[in-house]
Amino acid sequence: MGRFWSLIFLAVPVLGVGTFAVAPFFNIWLPADVSEHGRSVDSLFMFILWLTGAVFVITELLLFWFMWKYDSTKSKTPAKYVHGNHALEVVWTILPAATLLFLAIYQMNTWADIKMRRPVMAPTVEVVGRQFEWRLRYPGRDGSLGTPDDLFLVNDLHVPVDEDILIQLKTMDVLHSFFLPNLRIKQDAVPGMKIPVWFKALETGEFDIVCAELCGWGHYKMKGRITIESRADFDAWLEKKYALQEQTAPPPEETDTAGL
Amino acid sequence: MSIASPQRPHSHILEATHVRHSKSSRPVLEFLSHYVFSKDHKVIGLQFLFSTLLWFLIGGLLALAVRWQVAWPWSDVPVLGKLFEQQGGQMAPEFYTMLFTMHATVMIFLVIIPILAGAFGNFLIPLMIGADDMAFPTLNMLSYWFMWPAFIAFGSSFFVEGGAASSGWTSYPTLSTNVAASPGSGMGQTLWLLGLTFVGVSSMLGSVNYMTTIILMRAPGMTMFRLPMTIWAMFITAILQAFALPVLTAAGFMQLADRLIGTGFFSPEGNIVNNTLTSTGGGQPLLWQHLFWFYSHPAVYIMTLPAMGMVSDILTCFSRKPLFGYRPMVYSMAGISGLGFIVWGHHMFISGMNPALGTTFMVSTMLIALPSAVKTFNWLGTMWGGKLQFTTPMLFAISFVSMFIIGGLSGIFMAATPVDIFIHDTYFIVAHFHYVLFASTAMCVWGAIYFWFPKMFGRTMNEFWGKVHFFLTFIFLNGTFFTMHILGAVGFPRRLADAYHYETFHHLQPLNAFMTWCAIGMVACQIIFAINFFWSIFFGPVAGRNPWNANGLEWTTPSPPGHGNFDFQPIVHRGPYEYSVPGCEKDFLMQTDPPRVLPAVTH
Amino acid sequence: MNASTTLTGSGHGISSHDDSHGDNGNDPSGHSSHGLVLQYQPGLPLSRGKLIIWLFLSTEIMFFAALLGSYVVLRFGALVWPKPHHVHLSEPIGAFNTFVLICSSVTIVLSLEAAKGNRASRAKLWMLATLLLGSLFLGVKGYEYSAKFSHGIYPWSPRSRVFEKPDLYYGSAVRARLGEPEIIERLKKLDETPENQLTTEQLRARTSLSQVRKIVLNTDQQPFDLAVVADQIMPLATETGHGESGLNDTFTWLQLPAVIPGGTMWASTYFLLTGFHAVHVVVGLIVFVILLTMTLGPKRAGTIEAAGLYWHFVDLVWIFLFPLLYLF
Ligand code: HEA
Ligand code: HEA
Ligand code: CUA
Ligand SMILES: [Cu+2]
Questions:
Q1: Which end of chain B is more exposed for a tag (fewer CB within 10 A), N or C?
Q2: pLDDT digits (tens, 9 = 90+) for C34-43
Q3: Phi and psi at residue B159, to the nearest 5°
Q4: Closest CA relative to residue B441, chosen from B293, B554, B309
Q5: What is the pLDDT of residues C140-177, one digit of tens each?
Q6: CATH code matching the domain that covers B304-541, chosen among 3.40.630.30, 3.40.640.10, 3.55.40.10, 1.20.210.10
């Protein structure tokens, strides 16, 4: 039976790697990426995938090989009476240590780009989470947020392509998380905090906004849409929405009390 | 020179099974004090084992309900559907949030932690170090009995107004502190916190007791570096418990205060939930997350270290070889527990905490993979050049190693801050922790049950059905959980009652249905285990003192050991893994076997 | 040690079973269930009882570390934090209590010494002293708490009279208070009191009070206006600044809402920290009472020592709390 069990364990790396190899062909893979940050996040993901993939395959193959070779019903040699090996211990401590430290250092720049090096500009739009919708607030004609001429929308985010976008993220009630799968952006919205989120979209299109932090029974349906469009289209859209708001009701007053 | 290992006669097994008190005139009281309120560590360990297995079943059924909703949202739920008759047999989304919250709560606080430390810790510690019981038997008994109020608090919360806690096992404020935020944030959340406190008291009583026992009650000759890895693991786990748990207890009290008397530790000024303004403020939601993870990160090692210890014991026994790198194994466990206290922030990379802290936590998290790497390589080294016997416990132990590699490596993706931005709160995380918690730890628990079953009940479990159980569980668990990785790569979010209305995730339903079928298979094949388990208790082949030819102290006692454990004074002469010693007739030397070259008794 | 590995019991003794399991941690000989008393390798030169107390105390340290850490985070994360006098904290009282607790730590050591020296009655006396000092501490604490309560400072805010800022809610609360029938009654009485029956302080307070009433009542029912005038009410209502010695102190029955920036969070943390400390004091006192029912001879020295360790810890926590809460 030892052979049988060895093969079962051999199936782990084979099917494991197989799953990852096949998944992209069924479109079960990283969703289309349309942002600048996305490029670096994806390449880091792939880098770690290859690295851990190699470790995975090597260790699992060793496991299989030992099971195959040292099966007591097949192998004639007596068990080795060893208590360890100092040199080996040193090698397999230092090698992973170096790899892991390198990995950590290798990530830092991208992390800083996405979360620390905030572009110097006024926020393009304020996004406020609320059970269970995304409230948006664009600065009106005067270009600054928090003035009476702000434009209020719900769940329908538009941004211009190829430009730095700075979002001011807030929440009125509980935690939410502003997740743009196609832009590799995710940021929790925390009650009492104003958190900046920035990105630069490189392609036009319409994508999902997902809430990625449990926020109550309706968490699953807290869905918005982001439309990335050319500057001209964006301006035209903004103008249209603005005109619409002027005609209809005054801005919803709850948004004024949204924290801080 | 040859040595015979003393195989103790075991003609008294049956007497030992039923500790009788012939003079007794009050049978009910006797029964209570021996089997219910017993202070014997073995009885307490078995009580823990039976209760946690029962809870395991409950947690598994909750998991199935979760899986059902994920695969076929808004379809009629079988069996459970009767509960939702008002909604036409479908699960309400708020019920879904309660389901996964309670699934995780039961699995973590009522299954994995107590089965490792409570069941195996209790049963094995005195036996393996050569003590007649724990240092404080009454505390030990209390530690078991505190589990029941916890279970009752968790369990009853389904039936109170608003239902069970529903803010995830992480219970982040302000969702959890604000009654208006969610139906489950009412009484259910209060009961959840109460249950957590009871579990905490239980663990605390256990951990100080274990430490005292291991420090003061080792048999003569049993130096710290002759302890089996299981004991080292239990010892280090107890330290982790003792230092991490009080923080969660404090945080739990603060959340209770926020909820019951209206303090504002975790809610900021001007917080409006569901159109009602929170009356208090000035607090910080992130403070809870810091306190919670300060406990719960060490807790994930509390849920894995004992398993690592037991795997080391099983692996050496069936490789017939000494453990490769005993000291590095001990040091790496110490390293894990030390580093475990400074990595909690990796759960909060995108929580809004200062991103510079994120960088720091990334470095420490990467480093904590190092001791795990050392352990993995040493397990491989242990198998290398051995004489492997593929018994059921061995298969489970090997699968621990194999699966831990998968679960650990997915941790590296998440430790990488930029990558975590994308995969945080997706099924990639769910895959990660089920690999380490279920595929590794729970698999090891099964291995340990098969391994120590003879010592617990004096009989062995059926090997054939054990292997069938292993085979099916192993296949189904990988079918269920491996696929979660690629779901996560699409960004499929966790905790969603229905994700298919998103364009991005619309096409993933068939894959989820596949996973659910596997999960159903996984739970179903536990029937084999349950039957094997109960059948063997009564009808399994009688085991001698040492059915596996292992060499720890526990195998020198009768199976099962009587009250007081040892029928002779154990004296320890060597480390715990002396298998295949050259020049020795048998391929193992018990720790109690007298030294070959006299005089070496230094005691 | 007699390194004998011969079989002694071989199972016979197992059925004659004697449940002599006690939790007496100071008895290292363990349990003698079937004639065989197991020997152990000494790990540390400590008795079981002492070791477990130390371990237990280290978990306690983590518990209070979490509470203190939260306090520090909340305090330095807050925009404003009240000064001790804003919240009626009295440093001398706190210092006195610190002194009381330190004394009690001394008396318990003396009790242990006496017990070790087989002077049981003297040990009991010192134990009694410790109990009294601990109770004194609690009494003073209770007095301090009641002083807070009487100023409307509770750990929670809905029922509290403390407001973070002079805003709409504050304004309405003042109006609501002044509108209560019993207060109207007392105010009328106050207005009718001839000037010569009042101290100058009370006179001054009466003037401020009537101004407040004028503002509050002149405002029409629009809540928005109350928000505006809250700013004017606040300094008048507190007379000499933030609650230092305001109308509430002059007329204790008045109980007007007060503005203490950061006050509710301050109160939450203050009651949290001192509350859990007080719970520990109470546990200690219970232990002392139990000990007092026993003969405190050398046999009890271990127990007294364990209780003493615990008490020193409780003392130590207070030594951290006192400066953090009262002085900074
Ligand atoms: C038993 C439980 C257990 C264990 C052992 C681990 C182990 C690890 N975990 Fe895991 N983790 C959880 C349980 C566990 N985790 C749970 C329950 C959650 C989710 C909680 C929630 O949100 O609900 C979680 C979440 C979690 C996160 C947060 C993700 C997020 O929410 O965004 C992160 C991030 O860093 C992480 C990292 C790690 C790492 C680096 C390890 C390391 O210890 C792993 C180390 C092991 C290896 C790396 C494999 C073996 C090594 C080799 C073969 C050597 C060579 C390797 C290299 C050179 C790379 N875990
Ligand atoms: C130890 C922990 C543990 C274990 C064992 C499991 C086991 C399982 N878990 Fe769970 N899970 C968590 C911890 C665990 N989980 C946590 C922490 C979360 C996060 C919750 C949150 O987001 O807050 C989670 C969330 C979670 C989700 C995500 C929900 C969501 O985010 O929307 C899913 C979905 O598939 C899932 C599925 C499963 C399945 C199918 C199993 C199966 O493996 C279950 C298999 C069960 C058995 C096989 C039962 C066996 C029974 C016996 C052995 C009894 C025999 C009886 C006797 C002898 C008496 N779990
Ligand atoms: Cu909003 Cu989830
Ligand atoms: Cu962690």
A1: N
A2: 568 888 987 8
A3: -105, 0
A4: B309
A5: 999 999 888 877 788 766 666 777 777 777 777 888 88
A6: 1.20.210.10
